[in-house]
Design goal:
Layout (H helix, E strand, L loop, with lengths): L1 E5 L13 E4 H4 L4 H12 L7 E6 L5 H15 L3 E9 L2 H10 L4 E5 L11 E7 L8 H11 L4 E5 L10 E5 L2 E6 L3 H10 L2 H9 L4 E4 L5 H12 L7 E2 L20 H8 L6 E5 L6 E5 L2 E3 L1 H11 L12 E5 L5 H9 L2 E5 L7 H5 L5 E4 L3 E4 L7 H15 L3 H12 L1 E12 L1 H14 L7 E2 L2 E8 L2 E2 L6 E2 L4 E5 L4 E6 L7 E11 L9 H4 L1 H10 L2 H5 L6 E2 L1
Parallel strand pairs: 3-4, 3-5, 4-9, 10-11, 10-12, 15-16, 15-17
Antiparallel strand pairs: 1-7, 2-6, 5-6, 8-9, 12-13, 13-14, 17-18, 19-26, 19-27, 20-21, 21-24, 22-23, 24-25, 25-26
The site of 6-O-phosphono-alpha-D-glucopyranose has 15 residues, from loops.
């Protein structure tokens, strides 16, 4: 019943930071999915009889690709394939399942926070046995295989009913359709004190969680409304839709505008949160305050010991380089390690595996811990609820007290999107050329203490990653970082990350753009940003 189908290499199947990501019509080409999936299997060794986890964020084409993968996994000789009901599994839930069931690996179908639908994006990503994204060594080998593939193998069987929990036998392979939430919810109950959070909600605490019509709906509904007793209706946009209801499922104040406006208005509940398409990003908003991901990382790290899963304290904090220095102040106060890595969650894997870091975070709305090897949106929300259940204070007060204790790192990111690649490179070159002469120079109140092209030496495997962004640090704790996005799809996206440290509590309540005005002006001037990009203002300010 196994059919061997002749095929030819298809161009452009190179996995990026988060797997192979393309427009849906690209994936719909004949053999496109099969070639890539077979290239994954051809690259792996020793998986006969083992378990594979499969699931996606429910976006358009998810169900069709799940069927293809099931038939190909059976043909390849996996012993068992665990699939979330309806083909759904959030990215963190795949990571949980791989670890819990000691699976060989997992395949995630998602393009994260990119829009879905027939003209939207789709993606296929392979995760290894530790639950994290495949390292470059493996993705390079997969890509090499896509360039030489000549056939793929697929079981000639009818589609599996992926909507009913239960087992189907395909040859020697058992396909198990599982509740997509169960394993994940079980792990969360081990990490967090659900009794304490239940008591918070029982006391009248109100919340809105916006699932953005993406994969976290079922998770948030079961955990927040079901297990924790939040009022019905707490979770909105809770049904995963193939086109995410036309929304852009990227949880930032711009795309989650309804939630943002609610939280800034008179009818705000006590707490607001959102997650992205595949459930790994998070947005945290208190009544009247958007908590930047950088601040959220610092605040959660400072309070992690309140959750049973971290009661022994945390070993260290890791943050991506452009993420603000707020977490560094916490690490210093706790006397624990702080690790500065290049952008991309995969750089945290070794630090987590080696036990050097416990909590990790990125300015791009990712927070997580050593419980899995992906960032985790719902986990971040439960961490915040833990904190709120202990402190019984508004989120805004918790944030202000954090600033009072550690100082505030005013932070903003200015994005110049769809810039011609040459122009974006021009800005980077202009800064790079100045780096050697910047230290010691004074610009108004800003004196440069150091400047470099960030490179990372991984303390665990000894690997080096160069050219990871240009940093200019100032004596007063301010910082400018220039970096080109690795995930943009149109032209280049120049990201300018701006930061200023303020220890004086009397000056910690300013509008970030105003507080950062001098840093912003200098960043534009040094990079000749306006002249080179032709843009008077950034396209997105967060
Ligand atoms: C993805 C990765 C993150 C990373 C982000 C950076 O979301 O999962 O780990 O921080 O991309 O995106 P950028 O567009 O700034 O390269
Ligand atoms: Zn995501």
């Amino acid at each position: 019943m196994i059919r061997t189908v002749p095929t030819q290499p298809i161009d452009g199947q190179k996995p990026g930071t988060s797997g192979l990501r393309k427009k849906v019509p690209v994936f719909q080409q004949p053999h496109y999915v099969e070639n890539f999936v077979q290239s994954i299997f051809d690259t792996l060794e020793g998986f006969a009889g083992t378990t594979l986890i499969v699931g996606g964020d429910g976006r358009y084409f998810n169900r069709e690709v799940v069927q293809t993968i099931l038939k190909m996994a059976a043909a390849a000789g996996f012993g068992r394939v665990r699939v979330g009901q309806g083909g759904l599994l959030s990215t963190p839930a795949v990571s949980v399942a791989i670890r819990k069931h000691q699976a060989f690996g997992g395949i995630i179908l998602s393009a994260s926070h990119n829009p879905g639908g027939p003209d939207g994006d789709f993606g296929i990503k392979y995760n290894i046995g530790n639950g994290g994204p495949a390292p470059e060594k493996i993705t390079d080998a997969i890509f090499a295989r896509t360039r030489s593939i000549s056939e793929y193998r697929i079981a000639d069987v009818p589609d599996v009913d992926i909507d009913s929990i239960g087992e189907t036998v395909l040859g020697d392979t058992v396909v198990e359709i599982v509740d997509p939430v169960a394993d994940y919810a079980e792990l969360m109950q081990q990490l967090f004190d659900f009794e304490a959070i239940r008591a918070l909600f029982a006391g009248g605490f109100t919340m809105r969680f916006d699932a953005m019509s993406a994969v976290t709906g079922p998770y948030a509904k079961r955990i927040l409304e079901g297990l924790l007793g939040a009022a019905p209706g707490t979770v909105v946009n809770d049904t995963p839709l193939p086109d995410f209801g036309g929304h852009h499922p990227d949880p930032n104040p711009v795309n989650a505008k309804d939630l943002y406006d609610l939280m800034m208005g008179p009818d705000a509940p006590d707490f607001g949160a959102a997650s992205d398409g595949d459930g790994d990003r998070n947005l945290i908003i208190g009544r009247g305050i958007f908590v930047t991901p950088s601040d959220s990382l610092a605040i959660l790290a400072a309070h992690a010991h309140l959750a049973p899963g971290y009661a022994a304290g945390i070993a260290g904090i890791a943050r991506s380089m452009p993420t603000s220095l707020a977490a560094d102040h916490v690490a210093k106060a706790l006397g624990i390690g702080i690790y500065e890595t290049p952008t991309g969650w995969k750089f945290f894997g070794n630090l987590l595996d080696a036990g050097l870091a416990t909590i990790c975070g990125e300015e791009s709305a990712g927070t997580g811990s050593n419980h899995i090897r992906e960032k985790d949106g719902v986990w971040a929300v439960l961490m915040w609820l833990t904190l709120l259940s202990h402190r019984r204070q508004p989120a805004i007060d918790i944030v202000r007290e954090h600033w009072a204790r550690f100082g505030r790192n005013y932070y903003s990111r200015h994005d110049y999107e769809a810039v011609p690649t040459q122009a974006a490179n021009g800005v980077m070159e202009a800064i790079r050329a100045q780096i050697p002469t910047l230290p010691g120079q004074a610009f108004g109140s800003l004196t440069v203490s150091s400047a470099d092209d960030f490179s990372y030496h991984d303390p665990v495997d000894g690997s080096d990653s160069k050219n990871q962004g240009l940093r200019i640090l100032f004596e007063n704790g301010s910082r400018i970082v220039y970096r080109l996005s690795g995930t943009g799809t149109e032209g280049a996206t120049l990201r300018v990350y701006l930061e200023r440290f303020e220890a004086d509590t009397a000056r910690q309540d300013l509008d970030p753009q105003a507080a950062l005005a001098e840093v912003i002006a200098l960043a534009r001037k040094l990079g000749a940003v306006v002249e080179k990009t032709g843009m008077a203002e950034p396209s997105v300010v967060t």
